[in-house]
Design goal:
Death Domain, Fas; elongated; 12 helices; 2 domains; mainly alpha; single chain
Amino acid sequence: MDPFLALLNSISSALSGADLAAMKFLCRNDVPKRKLESVQSGRDLFVIFLEQRLIASDDVAFLEELLKNIKREDLVLQLKQFEEEGEVSAPDDQPDAHDKRLQKAAIEVICENVGRDWKMLMRKLELSEVKLDRIVAANPCNLREQLHQSLKEWQKWKGRNAKATDLIKALRDCKMNLVADNVEQRLLELNTETR
């Protein structure tokens, strides 16, 4: 059984009708009205959050904020306890040291060379619009930081499946071939250094 789903089920069981109504109201800008109308329980709401990537086992900030807003500190505490026990980002879901080095180098090159079209790249990497909007709001007027935070968010979401080759493919799909060539060159240099 997935410990994160068990946690969401537990939180859902603890929500009153008033709590659920308040949560639905608070996430009106993040979830389409049509979907909210069908929500009958916390579980229904959490399924939508998972589908829209508003929450994930390694990203509970959105849910935590909602629970704080409805004054359910007991459930916030339960969420924090789950995070602290290391369940949120299990180490076996993380890339190995070599992959991390390659990703870091690829991200550096991308941040240096991709400008205003960074959102197109992130959409190719399938990062949700909600996350992109949240990153822009947190880093207004700083394109480079928006791109950097988006790439970190993508890494966190993908875990061990985050590969530098995925970044290169997305760059090529966006017709950013020069940047893709630069990333490939940097990775080639890193691989020859480690031999």
